Amino acid sequence: MLPPNKRQKQARVLRDFRKVHRLTGALLFVFFFLISITGLLLGWKKHSGGIILAKTYKGASTNLKDWLPVDSLTTNAFAAIRDSLGEDKTLTLDRIDMRPDKGTVKFLFTEEYLGVQLDATTGQLLHLETRRADFIENLHDGSILDRWLGVDSGALKVIYSTIMGVALLIFTITGFWLWYGPKRMKQDSPAVPVKPAGPKPPRAVRPT
Question: Residue of 20, 141, 188, 204 with fewest CB within 10 Å of its CB?
Fold first, then answer.
């Protein structure tokens, strides 16, 4: 049997955890919801039928010796965007993704999450896309804040990830204790003594 002061302490801890759990969930509900939805979408991106992430198209050759120089492919990628969206389109190349197993080179641009897939051998356009998966990933990890505000160091992403990581840890710990705490208190509570059953009173017999 627990001493009364220790039992009161456990009850107080349980109340405090309940308050922290409720407050964390209320303040960060939108962010938890956003992280869960974007995480689910990212998990399904390769199985979305090209809606979230376009398939990688195949080029003419997977032999690197047959590929055009990178500068020529880059010129073709810029030309493919401008031919489709207009000559005055401002473009900033974000990264180049080479796929030797497909014979394809992907050019990813900062503006509007545009992407171009070129045949690495011929330089022809295979696919022009909007990288929805990149947008969802930026939402998921908070890097979209750096993108919107023009912070090149990625500081806002680090701050956001730290806050959400710590909050999720607190949410998990308090949630576990809200489940385990009452069970522990119930186990430590004194057992209720069972009174022994006495002899049954004689049954009255009705006269005939």
Answer: 204
